[in-house]
Design a protein that fits this description.
Blueprint lengths: L11 E7 L2 E8 L2 E3 L8
Antiparallel strand pairs: 1-2, 2-3
Length: about 40
Amino acid sequence: MRGIEEGEFDHVVWVTMTGEGPVIANLMLDGIHDENLKVAD
């Protein structure tokens, strides 16, 4: 895989449901990325 910049990475998504909708965290081996994670088009 080429990495986050290319939109290719192994991860687990942790989804927590709230009264306002889902909250998503991308859990990776080297840390946790928030909802502002961006990938290349």
